[in-house]
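Let's practice the habit of predicting before peeking. Look at the sequence and jot down your guess about where helices and strands might fall. Then scroll down.
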Amino acid sequence: MSKGFRPLFLLMGLFFLAGCAGKIPHMLAADYAEKKPRLIAVMPVRNLAADAGTASVLREKLIDELYFKGYPKVPSKWIDERLAAFPENGANQSPNSLGESLNVDSLLYTTLKEGLRPVTLLYSPVAVDAEFELKSVKTGESLWRVQHRVVYRNYGFSRTSLELKTWQVYESAIQEVLNRALATLPDGP
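Done guessing? Here is the structure:
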């Protein structure tokens, strides 16, 4: 190899490593350290995807991942029981009124924009696209917001084979979206 190509390969390697190591774009309030929440209530997932099961899996995994980041667990069943007292399960309530009822510092809203896709001939993509927004119950302001999308592509000759491959990577796709998104949220108290 000539000496002229070495800097080019080094430069390409650095770009590759920089692309793999970076965090995804996100918004974090400038004074997050001062307003850092202790208790986060994970609200029911707003599901824009066709698959209803993904929303509940995503919510439960989100509660677990927040726990591993140092935030105390607030069980979804307990949250849902309190939300039942509000019209439309609190969907149109202010963060302040919901926070008072739930006795938490902040609310985490999740929107599932994309879930399982139908299996087609020879190709079956698995896409999970979710947006997360953490809001203060005192001020209603957004403390943290991030969106991430993951696509796994499966190829095969039979419909059965493609469906099996789809279900094998589906939970991995959900977990990857959560891991990448929550990597941008500071650890809990």
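How did you do? The chain has a mean pLDDT of 82.
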